[in-house]
Amino acid sequence: MGAASSISTNRSTSSCSRPTRRPSPCRRPPGGGASPGEGPIEAAEPTRAGAGPTGDGLPVGASRLRHLVGYARKVYALGELLGAIRDGRNAPKTSARLVATTLLFAGLLRIRSFNALEPRLAEPPFLRLVGGPPDRLRLCSADVLGRALRRMEPAGVRRLLIQVVAQAERNKVFREGWCGALRYVALDGWEPIQSYRRHCRSCLVRRVKVKTRDGVVLEVDQYYHRYVVAMLLDPRFDLVLDFEPLLPSDLRERGPGVNEGHEGELTAAKRLLRRVKHTYGWLDVAVGDALYANGPFLSVVAALRMGAVVVAKKPGEEPLREALALWGGAPPAQIVRDDPAREEIALWDCPGLTTLASYPGPIRVVRAQVKGLAAPESRPHTWSMLVTGQATRLPAPRVLTVARARWHLENTGFHQFTTRWRFTHVFVHDGHAIQMLFWLFFAAFNLLTLFLYRQLRSYGRDRGTDPTRTISRLVDEMLDDLARLTVSPWDTS
Known about the structure:
Blueprint: E1 6-9, H1 64-76, H2 78-83, H3 96-108, H4 114-117, H5 124-130, H6 142-151, H7 154-170, E2 184-195, E3 204-211, E4 217-233, E5 239-245, H8 265-279, E6 285-288, H9 295-303, E7 307-311, H10 320-327, E8 334-338, E9 343-353, E10 363-372, E11 381-388, H11 396-405, H12 407-419, H13 431-454, H14 459-462, H15 467-483
Parallel strand pairs: 1-8, 2-6, 6-7
Antiparallel strand pairs: 2-4, 3-4, 4-5, 7-11, 8-9, 9-10, 10-11
Helix pairs in contact: 3-13, 6-13, 7-13
């Protein structure tokens, strides 16, 4: 290893990402030089006569909610995608398109349950929002929504999620990539639903110990649904690409080497990564936690011609054990001082290790010790990363940046889905119906995120840097807009 050197870096101006453009106003005049398909969205219809401005200076007909629907229709063909959704009900009074549209906006407006949604199904503003027939006083009941979800065809629902991201990529939203001009997908397990009583055929089951009010410890069955989620990592926003359920033992395919128990996260993750790469061929690097630091997963990544940045935590396993032995007590090869983050990072780098028997290619190992400058006497945090494929060209500080960015999936993603987006509420307890609902909710999340960062570029700047709070503020404004909705945003006549 080379002698230690002191290098001062600044994450906001590093080569990891290009400087962001100056935020432009939310509403630009026509012909303002927008990229194809991403131009400013004007009101689809004129404001009704006599309507005054809203609290933020926008006329009623040009509210945030109408702006979002117009943006989604023009850029992502939302109406066509929703119209392509089908279900297996026989001659339903409420079409699959209306059901899907209702649930999409229920997720976007963060309506907490079917019981909370049901009164809105008879409110004229909500009926206008979902494009309900003008002669209907009530769209349907909550039971109809549940039955439609159980019979809904997955191809059309998943296509809605995929086409939104695919169109954003065609509009060059991710053109620059991120660190090293690469596009990264993070994988992680997520368990939004648990129950001790209600269960379905797709539930996983485990024995857990619970304490009663009398202090008696009992061992009972707990039913749960667990998924692996794939999220695009980007310095500006994070988008859900796809997800995959873990299968219970009775739904798994039987074959040589398949155990009798429930499916593990790693098995579902490999299946998901193959599908994600097939769907989004422009992805370059997979990012994962210590569960993925093994030869079988890295072999799948290599077969897909992708790179990997995976956290390694077990010093007794290869190739981290070999790298630690080679480093011994050597000083760090590089010391990076990050003044904006108030950190000092010591880095060790060991490329080209081939000691992992279950993986045929070379693996680069990077180790980092992060010390906070505010408390220099505190114990530093140590990170170890395995790097393969295209990701090996990244400098060591950028490898650490990518590994730490996986937190976006937990902090911005899972935390927000759990606390704000109602994913943990069991709208309908059926494995197939839950998947359909989650695809619709994820599509709503992606549309809202793209709308916020592509159309309302100054919105987040004016309301702080926390993306969760910024999105929540925008949803609150849209709920206010819904009460003032007098014309359907789908009506272009």
